[in-house]
Structure formats: C-alpha cells, structure tokens
Amino acid sequence: MLLVALGGAIGTALRYLTALLAARWWGTEFPYGTLIVNLVGAFIIGLVGQIGTESVLVPESTRLFLTTGVMGGMTTYSAFSYETVRLMEANAWYHAWINVAVTTIACLSLCYLGIVAGRLILDLRG
Questions:
Q1: Mean pLDDT of the chain
Q2: Greatest Cα pair distance in the chain
Q3: What residue ranges do the domains of the chain occupy?
Q4: Where are the alpha helices (H) located in 28-89, listed in sequence order?
C-alpha cells in the first residue's frame, strides 16, 4: 500500500511538471501536457505490465509501484475528460475532437507497443 501511495505521489508530481513544461513550450490552447502523460503512461503500463506478469524481471511490488502507483497518479483520464468538455464548451470543436482521436488511438497503440516491447525483451532473455 505504501509503495502504491508513494508511486501515486511521484506520478502526480510528474503530471504537474509535464503540464507546466508543455504549457511553457507549446502554449495553453491545447492540453498538450495531459496528452503527453497519457501517451507515455499507456506505453509504460503496457511494457511494465507485460514484463511483470510474464517474468520475474519486475517483482510484483515494483510492478504495482510503477503501474498502479506512478502511472495511476500520472495518467489523467479525468483531466482528459474535463479538458475535452471545456474545449467543446468553448466551441473549440476541432481541438476537442483532435484530443479525443489522438488520445484514444495513440494511447491504445502505445499500450500495445509497450506489450510488444515487453515480449521482445523477454524473448531476448531466452
């Protein structure tokens, strides 16, 4: 429980820092920070989940720390939902639908790539 809570704290800090940096670099007209953490989180949860459930390379406590803790704290489906609805309310339909499409397609794709990468890592180990 403590590892998951610590991971969640780290994940939320990473999400906040990512949002700040994304806003500084690319502006605030689109929720870039949320998109970035969701994309990175999708890949990492796929990778760690695959390696953690199919081998002993990632112990259960580490898997829970990274997936339930860090990725649970870092990824932001609720923020994605809120920001998308706010874009719709502001009649920024183009940005809203781009956010929905890119987040959905890219996160599912990156999660799958994380699983494939985990399988490749396990296969290389023999």
A1: 92
A2: 54
A3: 2-124
A4: 32-54, 60-64, 72-74, 77-89
